[in-house]
Amino acid sequence: MSPASYRAAPPRVACSTLQVHRPRTKSGPRGQRLSSRRHRDAGPDGSPLAWTDVTTPPTAPSAVTAATIDEAAPRVADVASRTPLELNARLSAATGAQVWLKREDLQPVRSYKIRGAYNLIVQLDAEARGRGVVCASAGNHAQGVALACRRLGTHGRIYVPGTTPRQKRERIVTLGGADVEVIVVGDSYEDAFRAAQQDAADTGAVLVPAFDDPRTISGQGTVAPEIVEQLGHAPDLLVVPVGGGGLIAGMATWMHERHPATRVVGVEPAGAASMGAALAAGAPTPLAEVDPFVDGAAVGTAGRHTFPLVRDAGAQLMTVDEGHACTEMLRLYQSDGIIAEPAGALATAALDAGLVIEPGSTVVCVVSGGNNDISRYGEVLERSLIHQRLKHYFLVSFPQEPGALRRFLDEILGPDDDITLFDYVKRNNRETGPALIGVELASADDLSGLLERLEDSPLGVERVAPGSPLFHYLV
């Protein structure tokens, strides 16, 4: 198979494999790698790839209701754990409410996604299972599909974007065993979804959507009745992370029918707020740009099934900055001993991001997943420090003379400031030389003093602005 092709490999003897299929690239300015536009928007023959569920059996349910979610619960119980509902002392003290955490990070696949994937695949008849299944995922849904395939003896091909952490890719192969193939393609969930659609159209395999199918939504929605059963009553406030919207669509629908007094709030990463954009526009609307960092929720377009369900259930939407989510990830780990992925920290991050919480109320936050690659923690820490205004970068022109750096340390840095990056190249034919300096402050309040001392110094100083190309390169 050509590496430039979006077409899936032909069905093979069952084997556990990991393939990397990337679009053909060409060199751009300064060696930049540019993906061919044709592969993002079109199939191998150049024709557009339609966003229709061409392989979804016509017998699929046409709606999601509290009843379809209740019916899904015993099916899902065959493979999904009844995860703990834990009272969290740290968040309860910070909010003045009773804050409970629904620990979906403790599922066998470390996320709630097993509920929806299994609920769909287990309902396929023998003929459909014999054709196999195909899906696209940023990682968590893929793990659910992989485990479902293994439990049900169904062959699956799983497409993931190149942004999917290696830890998630390896877990997919481990969970699926000999029943799955993993194919890496493109740079976004949408790229992987298009490739999965083309595969389904070519081979007749059943497409298992990550969020935009009534059976997937009903399975994911089973988290809601489980919470009420464990709590003994409905919470006053339910806070749910949002990517494509499957989890909140199911949970909000069930709550709206069974316990309409419960307020449901969905939390999206600021760089991928596709459901909020859909609610504002009145229909699913593609985002112009998506920040892939919160990979479990980095979806560019809300689902055509999930959007009306979220809208009609009256769920509220808010966003949390990616750096804030990183800060909450570190708090969950350091204070609560919970390993959450970025999407898994969205709900609890919302509690101190402007969400109105009544003192004494009962709040449940869904910790949606814990599939975090430990190699990402450097970036997590960096984003958290920047969000807290503790990490800053500067371009400083030093005179090329002895003692210049010592004067900078003595006269400009504060007593508790640390240099975390110093990149300087001596220029023999110049009087000054530029240095890229990273500074970590002990307190965000120290920034104004540092900026004043830099302004008063004879050095040429340029602050690296957040959002600039150089800043993105550094972070």
Protein architecture, described:
By secondary structure, the protein is of the alpha/beta class. The chain has three domains: 17-60 and 112-215, 3-Layer(aba) Sandwich (Rossmann fold); 82-111 and 217-381, 3-Layer(aba) Sandwich (Rossmann fold), CATH 3.40.50; 389-474, 2-Layer Sandwich (Alpha-Beta Plaits). The protein is built from 19 helices and 17 strands. It has helices at 37-41, 66-76, 89-95, 113-121, 126-131, 140-152, 166-176, 189-203, 214-220, 223-231, 246-258, 274-281, 306-312, 322-336, 346-349, 377-387, 404-411, 447-456, 469-474; strands spanning 17-20, 25-27, 33-35, 85-87, 98-103, 133-136, 156-160, 180-184, 206-207, 237-241, 263-269, 316-320, 362-367, 391-399, 418-424, 432-440, 460-463. The strands form four sheets. The protein has a six-stranded mixed β-sheet, sandwiched between helices. It has a five-stranded parallel β-sheet with strand order 1-8-7-6-9, sandwiched between helices. α2 packs across α9 and α9 packs across α11 (246-258). The longest helix has 15 residues, at 189-203. The protein starts with 16 loop residues before the first strand and ends with a helix. Its cofactor is pyridoxal 5'-phosphate.
